[in-house]
């Protein structure tokens, strides 16, 4: 086992928009409180991410006084209550998982279309009250695991040493180093060797336990600069990461970070600077 320091905590109130760095975060079975509770969809219900609309990275998010605030320089801002539950129902999917969602209204829809400079109509949705998203990988994530709009598991844990190893390889190959925000983690830890997060079975702290499920397969989002929304023309760091840390059994795709679920500690609080114990079996 290893003693690990929490060096970063982040939430992403709207899927694929900019995240919020926190000093402490409340654990729930579905992910950190306020994490990925909203999502952008097209009018017909197809979900939207940076994969097809990179400018989502430019939308800043904030939560205060029971409201979520979205903003982008030059386009102003818009707010809505975090508990806005009224609206038309929209059927959508997150990958293969069917979701019943509630539309958040015309004002924010018009703002999104303008701020994202998109010609097509866009809607902001949240999960319908009482609806639980089914998991399409229960053999890995657990039969009773539910989440909101995360791609897979409720939590993504990354390792500072893995980023250091990737950046060393990038620089050696004549490329620029990249920041951790390319990988959109929830929990960042220090104290492991590079890529040893893939060997962990769980993390434990006072009254809480996170189970490690499977490596996080990375995609084109890693090539998008989160400050400019520009894609790297040479598909970096995707290519370098694929070479030094491929997905187990799938060498055409890279892995970075590990998907995790909450096994114990509902409503517990994680804090930056605190220590967790990592177990390998």
How does this structure look, described?
With 281 residues, the protein is mainly beta. The chain has 2 domains: 2-33 and 136-279, PK beta-barrel domain-like (M1 Pyruvate Kinase, Domain 3, Beta Barrel); 38-127, no CATH class. It is 12% helix and 39% strand. The strands form 4 sheets. It has a 7-stranded mixed barrel with strand order 1-13-12-17-15-14-19. Strands 5-11-10-9 form a 4-stranded antiparallel β-sheet. The protein is globular, with a radius of gyration of 18 Å. The mean pLDDT is 94.
Q: What is the strand content? A: 35-45%
Task: Name the shape in a single word.
Answer: globular
Q: What is the strand arrangement across the widest sheet?
A: 1-13-12-17-15-14-19
The name of the CATH superfamily of the largest domain reads PK beta-barrel domain-like
Number of helices: 4
Helix-strand sequence: EEEEEEEEEEHEHEHEEEHEEEE
CA distance, first residue to last residue: 9 Å
Topology:
Layout: E1 2-11, E2 20-22, E3 24-28, E4 31-32, E5 38-42, E6 60-64, E7 67-72, E8 76-81, E9 89-94, E10 97-103, H1 106-115, E11 122-127, H2 138-141, E12 155-159, H3 160-172, E13 187-190, E14 202-205, E15 208-217, H4 238-244, E16 246-247, E17 250-264, E18 269-271, E19 275-279
Parallel strand pairs: 12-13
Antiparallel strand pairs: 1-2, 1-13, 1-19, 3-4, 3-18, 5-11, 6-7, 7-8, 9-10, 10-11, 12-17, 14-15, 14-19, 15-17, 16-17
Q: Care to give the gist of this entry?
A:
With 281 residues, this protein is mainly β. The chain has 4 helices and 19 strands. It folds into 2 domains: 176 residues, Beta Barrel (M1 Pyruvate Kinase, Domain 3), CATH 2.40.33.20; 90 residues, no CATH class.
């Amino acid at each position: 086992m290893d003693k690990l320091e929490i060096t970063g905590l982040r939430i992403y109130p709207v899927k694929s928009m900019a995240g919020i760095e926190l000093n402490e975060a409340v654990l729930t079975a579905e992910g950190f409180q306020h994490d990925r509770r909203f999502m952008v969809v097209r009018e017909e219900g197809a979900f939207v991410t940076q994969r097809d609309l990179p400018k989502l990275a430019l939308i800043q998010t904030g939560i205060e006084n029971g409201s979520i605030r979205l903003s982008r320089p030059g386009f102003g801002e818009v707010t809505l209550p975090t508990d806005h539950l009224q609206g038309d129902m929209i059927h959508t999917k997150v990958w293969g998982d069917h979701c019943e969602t509630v539309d958040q209204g015309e004002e924010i829809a018009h703002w999104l279309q303008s701020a994202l400079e998109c010609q097509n109509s866009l809607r902001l949705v949240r999960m319908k009250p009482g609806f639980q998203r089914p998991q399409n990988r229960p053999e890995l994530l657990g039969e009773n695991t539910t989440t909101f709009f995360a791609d897979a598991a409720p939590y993504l844990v990354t390792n500072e040493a893995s980023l250091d190893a990737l950046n060393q390889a990038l620089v050696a190959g004549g490329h620029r180093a990249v920041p951790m925000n390319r990988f959109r983690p929830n929990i960042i830890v220090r104290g492991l060797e590079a890529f040893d997060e893939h060997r962990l079975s769980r993390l434990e702290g006072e009254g809480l336990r996170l189970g490690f499920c499977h490596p996080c397969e990375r995609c084109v989002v890693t090539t998008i600069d989160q400050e400019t929304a520009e894609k790297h023309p040479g598909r970096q760091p995707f290519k370098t990461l694929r070479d030094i840390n491929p997905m187990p059994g799938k060498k055409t795709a890279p892995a970075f970070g590990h998907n995790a679920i909450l096994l114990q500690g509902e409503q517990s609080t994680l804090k930056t600077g605190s220590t967790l114990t990592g177990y390998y079996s």
